[in-house]
Design a protein that fits this description.
By secondary structure, this protein is an alpha/beta fold. It is 38% helix and 19% strand. It folds into two domains: 254 residues, Alpha-Beta Barrel (TIM Barrel), CATH 3.20.20.70; 74 residues, no CATH class. Helix 11 runs antiparallel to helix 15.
Length: 390
């Protein structure tokens, strides 16, 4: 069991659940999430069964009766069988979440698999499919085995559910040019899903992309320009940015789970490599991670599956700013006060006296950055982290 004192947890707050499916058919070269490929089927089945079993066990242990949202990510959740995904969804639906998001790859989507989601019955299920690009040469360069034909077919299957569908795009992939990313964006806008996530390719430490030479990889400046051009196309089409990489047609189309993370609300993570954050009534936070061991999770007699980290209060304060300032909602002043007292606002006040003051805004409930300010978020955070730790 997750070993925490449940009597001291702040159960007045909403809790969310993240379920990590740690398997993939192949490993994308830019991905730094925990996932395994080529795993023996018997082990994969045992791990998935253990993940499904642990959800009610851990929530009951933590005395959590209801969830605000659920996110099923990975890895590749769409490699679950129809029976597995149906049972998983049935369990989490019992906690009455307002929204459940499940990630999918285009090549996995079939009418039979979609029928297992019971989308006509459960209107709180939100779908998220990673397209990344329609440019086949770029997909091959980053190790994605999806074909253009598979993506087009998947979009046809998902047509009835566009009002609860997110599509992921990445700008700045190998072989990308401004013309290609604009063509990608125009194609997605023509399809018109309710939500679009637009990322600029990140060179994450330890990924295949960082040590395999790609002569056709756009420069950092080119990647930034491609992302900004795509962003302008999104906004001109009526999508509203509510976080640096996320755009929705309407407020109801936003990802509740991501907003939960960005506001540093507590959540549970279940699965190998899954991370959760539990918050005590006194504001202390514990980060609980599922051990990155498939053998541990695949052993029904193994119970030592969790790793714990007490988050330093100064670091936790900085995390509130780092996450909240990414969004148009900003940092919740009430949560800052409840968790940190008067200390919570001090770094913001100090920062506002300097060069960043012109980009900083404050409402009755929130601390936030202007549109221009979010463009300089990384640089601003470098100054803010010192103030939080000072």
């Amino acid at each position: 069991m997750i070993d925490v004192d449940t009597l001291q947890l702040d159960n007045k707050q909403e809790y969310a659940l993240y379920v990590h499916i740690p398997f993939c058919w192949y490993k994308c070269h830019y991905c730094d999430f925990f996932s395994s490929v080529g795993v023996q089927e018997s082990l994969r089945i045992r791990v998935i069964e253990r993940i499904i079993m642990e959800i009610p066990r851990q929530l009951e242990h933590l005395k959590i009766r209801q969830l605000s949202s659920v996110y099923i990510g990975g890895g590749t959740p769409s490699l679950l069988t129809e029976n597995q995904v149906s049972r998983l969804l049935s369990i989490v639906q019992g906690y009455k979440p307002q929204q459940i998001t499940i990630e999918m790859n285009p090549e996995d989507i079939t009418p039979l698999w979609l029928s297992a989601l019971q989308l006509e019955r459960w209107h709180n299920i939100r779908l998220s499919m990673g397209i990344q690009t329609f440019h086949q040469e770029s997909l091959i360069a980053v190790g994605r085995n999806t074909t253009l034909e598979q993506t087009v077919q998947a979009l046809q299957y998902l047509e009835p559910y566009k009002d609860r569908l997110n599509l992921d795009l990445i700008a700045g992939l190998p072989h990308h040019s401004e013309k290609i990313v604009c063509a990608d964006m125009h194609r997605v806008l023509e399809y018109s899903p309710s939500h679009i996530s637009l990322y600029s390719l990140a060179m994450e430490q330890g990924t295949i992309l960082t040590y395999r030479h790609h002569p056709d990889l756009p420069s950092e400046e080119e990647r930034s320009i491609q992302w900004q051009v795509s962003q302008r196309l999104l906004q001109s089409a009526g999508y509203v940015q509510y976080e640096i990489s996320n755009y929705a047609r309407d407020i109801i189309d936003r990802s509740r789970q991501n907003l939960h993370y960005w506001q540093l609300k507590p959540y549970i993570g279940i699965g190998p490599g899954a991370v959760g954050t539990l918050v005590y009534r006194n504001g202390t936070a514990i980060r609980v991670s599922g051990k990155r061991s498939l053998q541990s999770w695949g052993n029904i007699d193994m119970h030592d599956m969790w790793e714990y980290e007490v988050i330093d209060r100064q670091d936790f304060l900085f995390e509130h700013y780092m996450m909240g300032l990414r969004t148009t909602i900003g940092v919740d002043k009430l949560i800052l006060h409840q968790r940190f007292g008067s200390r919570g606002m001090q770094p913001w006040r100090q920062l506002a006296r300097g060069k960043w003051g012109a980009y900083m805004q404050e409402s009755e409930t929130s601390l936030l950055l202007s549109v221009e300010g979010r463009l300089f978020l990384d640089a601003l955070l470098l100054d803010l982290i010192d103030l939080c730790r000072g």
